[in-house]
């Protein structure tokens, strides 16, 4: 695995894969949007069920991005691999964006359905903490000038913050929350109708592919910037 | 077409959610592509400079 993870090989492979990933993301997002608007109103939520097609994928990608960031940070910390550090750094702003999107779209669903923009329940609060961890991680990267020290400090923060992922996942089981429980990945299969499941799958796949496309672009940018910085050091 | 986009009394919330999502994603795409283009140009300039 690490054999394929040298920056030169990464640039070659990712350059070839990027147009396909981005194209597939666009196709799934358009398909998800069409299927979402073609879906009938839910018997309880009415048309606000359509907000789920942008809220759930954003929340899913926000958590996946954190998992990938923590994994990259761990690889960087253990193997001192510069590409892993770059990957962790590149994932953070994207993860923060999708977390913010999940919180805002969730709030726009909550107001008509619960009668409140925000409630301090386990799922919402742990998701807000996820956003704060992302912002703290980005701030720490920017606060430490030395790249090696910054990578180590942020990796520790990312790994400590990973404790929040199971808290988010199981918050709806551990505490009595206003947020609904699991309805897709649950024992006994999904509890939602196929007319809502298909647009949700299409959007979730579109969001996931979009995240990977943007992540690759950001890692490539980070590699180019690091090359430029080392050239500048050589010139000075 | 208008029937396809017809929504119930909570249409404002639904369009706001889609609007925020599209804006956020579009901004991320533009910022990522711009940063990449800048980094590429900067590196190309540095590589042209005599050492």
Explain what the structure shows.
The complex is a heterodimer of chains A (236) and B (51). Chain A is mainly alpha-helical and 236 residues long. Chain A has helices at 7-38, 52-79, 82-114, 122-143, 147-161, 164-174, 194-235. Chain A has one domain (24-38, 46-229). Chain B has one domain. The interface between A and B is medium-sized, with 35 and 30 residues.
SSE blueprint and pairings:
The complex is a heterodimer of chains A (236) and B (51).
Chain A: H1 7-38, H2 52-79, H3 82-114, H4 122-143, H5 147-161, H6 164-174, H7 194-235
Helix pairs in contact in A: 1-7, 2-3, 2-5, 2-7, 3-4, 3-7, 4-5, 4-6
Chain B: H1 11-48
Kindly summarize this structure in a few lines:
By secondary structure, chain A is mainly alpha-helical.
Throw out a few tags for this protein.
heterodimer, A: 236 residues, mainly alpha, B: 51 residues, 1 helix, rod-shaped
Number of helices of chain B: 1
Cα-based radius of gyration of chain B, to the nearest Å:
21 Å
Low-pLDDT segments, ≥5 res of chain A: none
Shape of chain A: globular
CA-to-CA gap between the ends of chain B? 62 Å
Count the beta strands of chain B.
Answer: 0
Class per helix and strand makeup of chain B: mainly alpha
Q: What does the radius of gyration of chain A come to?
A: 20 Å
Quick one: overall form of chain B? rod-shaped
**Share in helix of chain B:** over 70%
Query: In angstroms, what separates the terminal alpha carbons of chain A?
Result: 36 Å
Strand content of chain B: under 5%
Mean pLDDT of chain B: 90
Largest interface: A-B, 35 and 30 residues
